[in-house]
Amino acid sequence: MALEPNFLLSWVFLCIAATISSTLFFLRKKTHKFTSKKLQQKKNKKLPPGEMGLPWIGETMEFYKAQKSNRVFEDFVNPRIIKHGNLFKTKIMGSPTIVVNGAEANRLILSNEFNLVVSSWPSSSVQLMGMNCIMAKQGEKHRVLRGIVANSLSYNGLESLVPQLCDTVRSHLDTEWGGKEEISLYRSAKALTFTVVFECLYGIKVELGMLEIFERVLEGVFAFPVEFPCSRFARAKKARLEIETFLVEKVREKRKEMEEEVRRPNTTLFSRLVEGLTKGEITEDEVVDNMVLLVFAAHDTTSYAMAMTFKMLAQHPTCRDTLIQEHNQIKANKREREYLTVEDVKKMKYSWQVVRETMRLSPPIFGSFRKAVADIDYGGFTIPKGWKILWTTYGTHYNPEIFHDPMSFNPSRFDQPIQAYTYLPFGGGPRLCAGHQLAKVSILVFLHLVVTSYDWSLVYPDETISMDPLPFPSLGMPIKISPKMAL
Ligand code: HEM
């Protein structure tokens, strides 16, 4: 049977209409199914308990207040752990944040850098340290920079550095302590740490006024990033520019020198960075920004650990006697003013336990921020993508199930192995402190040369610790000193 043209046309129309309507119906059903699946998924995502505080500022004031008096654990973290558990939500500095505590949560967050989270620093820190510094880098760029920095600062890399470190500490003590009866231990430790980075890592002589310029930058690192003429941040930016000009000149000089003397081995961290520059692995900005960052990373942290170790020793005379005995034995096997070696540092086992215990109780960095780059499901809750995460040392360092009688000072607890991700003064995972070995040898060499050369006592045994935002002894920890009589 042949079909009439009119009939054929109506038939084609009918078919098209049927196809369109069935497609629409199918799509509607699918969209409906999809949206309800999304809604269902949203419903399944349960935020951790906690309070978001006031609109926009959230609980920032409570956090800052606790931080200023060095009571972040007592007044902010612990009351919320008691109320909500190890995972709680809050809002700090305008950002919805999940605070995580405990070994398992630390492992999840710290070991998943780049996959689930990325480190998240305030805009002022990134502007002052430089966008090209290691802490602001992710992925491949982070790997390359980390390779240069961490290799130079590894235990093997430090082997040649220990005698040099010994020389730097000794000449610091001769010039800054010699002939004095009282000194500020914290200020002395800061000046020393600064000299160690410049002279031992960069081979650049510290000149008068340099430390002050750097400290002006450091003062702005956590300041509000507004550039009013006299604001902390504006002063810091001006100081950063001065440093940049100085370092760029040094980098170019070094590059020229290295190109002219092809055969000299590139042993210092500075020459390794410049070598990376000549090979085209990194840029000049990356060299400069990382040189600034390393000063910042080493400065307040190492000096606080040094000062607090002395405070703990003063409060625990039995520990002090054991530690002094360890150093006297090392000294007894050396000639007068002979340099220490890595082997000597390895013998300072008890001293390192004392330092570790000090950093457990008084961590120079109590935690740091990350940003979730994907939804993270953990412990029956979801940390939403885009939220900040704050991991803290407190959740494990002060936990009696992990460290027995956690508030007591007991260096011998480190005779036993420590469970992973419970002891975190240096962080963990891919962002583990790249300078932890340098920090260790600097503190131990300093301890050795002080306790074998000086008798000392705290001027204010009850001196309080403030935070801004890193902790520091509020009076600079003055100590009375007198040279030890030669035996
Ligand atoms: C007692 C002294 C020190 C303490 C307590 C300390 C602590 C830390 C912590 C907790 C982190 C990780 C931060 C995070 O996870 O966001 C870190 C990272 C870092 N630290 Fe240290 N630090 C110390 C000394 C040093 C020194 C002496 C240097 C080098 C001169 C250094 C260089 C670095 C660098 C480069 C990073 C960034 C690593 C990366 O992003 O891959 N630190 N430090």
UniProtKB/TrEMBL annotation:
Gene Ontology biological-process entries: sterol metabolic process
Topology within the bilayer: Single-pass membrane protein
Cellular compartment(s): Membrane
GO terms, molecular function: heme binding; iron ion binding; monooxygenase activity; oxidoreductase activity, acting on paired donors, with incorporation or reduction of molecular oxygen
Binding site for heme: 433
Matches recorded under Pfam families: p450
Matching CDD domains: CYP90-like (cd11043)
First-listed, main subcellular location of the protein, grouped into a coarse class: membrane
Protein name from the UniProt record: Cytochrome P450
Organism, scientific name: Eutrema salsugineum (Saltwater cress)
